[in-house]
Amino acid sequence: MDDSIVYRNIKFLKGVGEKRALILQRELEVSSYKDLLYYFPYRYVDRSVFVKAREIRSDDIHIQIKGKVIDKQTVTNGKTKRLIVGFGDETGRIELVFFKGLKWIYDRLDVGRQYVVFGKPSKFNNEFNFIHPEIEPIETYFNSANDSKFLPIYSTTEKMKNSFLNTKALAKITLNLINECHGNIAETLPEYIVKHYNLISLQQSLENIHYPQSPELLSKAKLRLKFEELFFMQLEHQMTKSHRKEKSQGFVFSKVGDVFNSFYSRNLKFSLTEAQKRVIKEIRNDMRSSHQMNRLLQGDVGSGKTLVALMCMLIALDNGFQAALLAPTEILAQQHYNSITNFLSGLNVNVALLMSGVKSKARKNILSNLEEGCIDIIVGTHAILEDSVKFHNLGLAVIDEQHRFGVEQRSKMWNKNTTLPPHILVMTATPIPRTLAMTVYGDLDYSVIDELPPGRKPINTIHLFDSSILRVYDFMRQQINVGRQIYIVYPLINENEKLDLKDLMDGYTSITQQFPLPQYQVSIVHGQMKAEDKEYEMNRFKRGVTNIMVATTVIEVGVDVPNATVMIIQNAERFGLSQLHQLRGRVGRGANQSYCILMTKDNLSKESAKRIDIMCSTNDGFVLAQEDLALRGPGSIQGTQQSGVLDLKIADIVKDEPLVRTARDLADYIVKIDPALSLPDNALLKQYFLKHKPLQDFSKIS
């Protein structure tokens, strides 16, 4: 078996050549035989099914019809020419319309001759026609070398179609490819995996994904290719994690000492949830293992992630190390600093806050104390990442809302120690479905706080149409009269007529008219304000000076005002479920009942209506995240698009969730028993990594 053929340049394939090879490279990133083998059809047409002329419907996608050419004529309308071909069978007549290559097509179609036409029907003047259909003589069609009943349909671009590389041309080229590669596609999975999961061979899979011999074989081909795609991705994750744990040494936090125990016995005024206890135990085990920790901590809004992070930082302090908490915004950094200093009140722990706004004299003092080891915990923004910030002995770095920091920024925290890298705990309040987390963050260890503290009242979420705005104003007055505060969130700052969105400034004007001075105070915050102005307005609201905060989504993360009990979201249909949930999480932080009012236009699309209904039905962020994943797909879920690992060719992590889990379990098992892939049974897997991942650091398997 010579699998080198699959790495040939696509220009050498029959039917391609230099010109088409260039188009395939530019439009589809197809450069080799292998690239085209893995450019899969998105659907199939049963070649044995033909539609009669009178059976054509306007909602047909692509259909086949066999009949004969009745007449043909070139029509000129001003500067525009088109070829109209009368075509039909015994049940009726249709028109085939061409705007390009008129002479070439005219000369090759003979009146009275039988043809097969394939295309998408459209209706004009109450009659069906086909614009630029594919057409071939009936004898050519039935004498095709391919005996599959299914015609593959491939995605193509306008530039490809203009160069006569439509789906039919691509199908012919792919058939040539299948014939040329027959018997030369090497297996990639060990025999024990193929047998255990009852998979067909890679050769059979690739042949049947393009030209299925039966619906059953098509189903088996899809299963095999999906499994392989997910398995190798998960195996790479597990290899990376295993190799990093073996290679990377970490500080050993062997004890839980006085600082932790004093905090737990004296300062903690409530009981931890079982989920918090479980997660602290998982992190503790990591930090005493002698390997560097790299763990993702995921928890819904209000689940107590900051407290968990703080208690883990106290373990670092007990072992003679410093800790750092990195936040994406100054508001969030300030909030974490306030929360941590309140928690640690009365304990001998020195906590400092470092942000770009800190004055030079105070900054110099912080940097000096940090380097000398006088500061135990530093909380801050990107300012912590600057080269001038040096630690005495950083043992644990906590990164909050990790999707807001690039890989390069996060890696800077690794280099804040001259000996070993600190343990890393990254946190997110964006609930991520487990399947997505396994796919995107598969190389990280993974902890979930899936339980809210007891006594928290669920937020009452209500959907109202814009026509009910006066009712909303009355409700706002009632809440303000009993001392509560209110958020009103708009999607944009300036008016955008095209998208028909509410205008923040217009909304602010309306609110100040309905809630005038001196009886009411209204703040406004948006992303284009100066940092100091934004902070001033935020602080006024936090201190209770203003009753209403009119804002864009800048308040999505970071503002914690227990007295704010109402969140009104304008144009709620324009937000995804995860973002709506994040915004809703700004209320419900105190003991009083809180409300989230979703305002929308009257005529909602089916998808928008479903999204709003889901929001009103649950407060569970993980349920919402799963629904959001199903509705919008993985690429749209916050923070995952940048990872690049979701470029799946055939698998779907939502629909194929059981397969993701199976692939993950198998990869985990293999790496545990054979981390170097040195067993004879795993020779093909080792070969895969050496061939396909040459730049990856898998030195232990080479």
Account of the 3D structure:
The chain contains 24 helices and 22 strands. The strands form four sheets. A seven-stranded mixed β-sheet has the order 6-7-4-3-2-5-8. Strands 12-13-11-14-15-10-16 form a seven-stranded parallel β-sheet, sandwiched between helices. It has a six-stranded parallel β-sheet with strand order 17-22-21-18-20-19, with helices on both faces. The two termini are 24 Å apart. The protein is an alpha/beta fold.
Please give a handful of descriptors for the protein shown.
alpha/beta; seven-stranded mixed sheet; seven-stranded parallel sheet; 24 helices; 18% strand
Note the topology.
Elements: H1 17-28, H2 33-37, E1 43-46, E2 63-77, E3 80-89, E4 92-98, H3 102-108, E5 114-119, E6 121-124, E7 127-131, E8 134-137, H4 138-142, E9 150-153, H5 158-162, H6 167-181, H7 191-196, H8 202-210, H9 215-247, H10 258-267, H11 274-287, E10 294-299, H12 305-318, E11 322-326, H13 330-343, E12 351-354, H14 360-372, E13 377-380, E14 394-399, H15 407-414, E15 423-428, H16 434-440, E16 445-449, E17 460-465, H17 469-481, E18 485-489, H18 504-514, E19 522-525, H19 531-542, E20 548-551, E21 564-569, H20 577-584, E22 595-600, H21 606-617, H22 621-632, H23 657-673, H24 683-692
